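Escalated from tier 1: magnesium ion holo job.
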Amino acid sequence: MPQADHKTEHLSGDAGGIARAADLLRSGQLVAFPTETVYGLGANARDGKAVARIFAAKNRPAFNPLIVHVANLSQAETLAEFPVAAQQLAAAFWPGPLTLVLPQRDHSGLSPLVSAGLRTVALRMPAGDIAQALLTKAQIPIAAPSANPSGKISPTSANHVLAGLNGRIEAVLDGGNCTVGLESTIIGFDPTPTLLRAGGLPTEAIEACLGQPLARAPNTPTPSAPGQLHSHYAPHAPLRLNVTDPHPAERLLGFGTVTADLNLSPAGDLTEAAANLFGYLHKLDQAGAAPIAVSPIPDHGLGRAINDRLRRAAAPRP
Ligand code: TXA
Ligand code: MG
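Tier 2 regenerated the structure:
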């Protein structure tokens, strides 16, 4: 991560700036970029470390699932399955301020951190010449929440982005002011089309396209909100936290200089640990039912989000 005295590059939205932004994203760096809704804080969605740095840069206490931005429909179809209603909506409204939560393909290649361990993925094809040109040039799916510190207002200009994140990200690509300025509308299919978040595309337009009313999610859209533990990945094996002295029957998910079955970060790097967390829990789960012990994780920075997720994973199952 850049130091506080390391300035964020302010790239102009011309061919040179777009090419530079694409190179930075491809090499695992963080680049804020304009979309028609708000500026997104982008990272290569296949690179778990880069995705983990999004949470660190935003100072997010929990791993909310992120929206993955794609250049075109064929790229989207390599990442997720499209039910018929989703095909209709994509045909009618992409590119545009509409996000579709879809069943993720097994070989999507996305970091599990992108979806916070869920089996779905939220996809969006943004409108706007610069976003389109960037995604086409980069040729990778780009995970991006709004480019603001957690708890602050979403940015609709490059200067908003710099006001919140200068020195914490490698670059911002300047595309002037966002035309929509409100985050995308999010629709899920479980299996009926359901409004998960109201946003930049009016629900009336969506309902007219589908020829049926949208279901309304009984709870709000954030699957990571307290009380919605069921929607998060939890291993089948029991999980014991803050363990320094594992039982012989337990498998150790380690952190730092310990001998472990899998080690989140032998170097004790929380960014690396965050990037590995969901993937390693999946691996341990697939490898058997023996209980899992987890080393203590420092409760600061990304460690708070890691501990939040581990507590959810260890919580009693309904
Ligand atoms: O307009 C936008 O959507 C902007 C621009 C940058 O594209 N992005 C944005 O991202 O607003 P973000 O991170 O603020 O919103 C992500 C939200 C999550 O909080 C959650 O509500 C929903 O999308 N989400 C993402 N993945 C999901 C999933 N797999 N299942 C259910 N909801 C999901
Ligand atoms: Mg946001």
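The pocket of magnesium ion (ligand 2) is lined by residues 145-146, 154 (CB under 6 Å).
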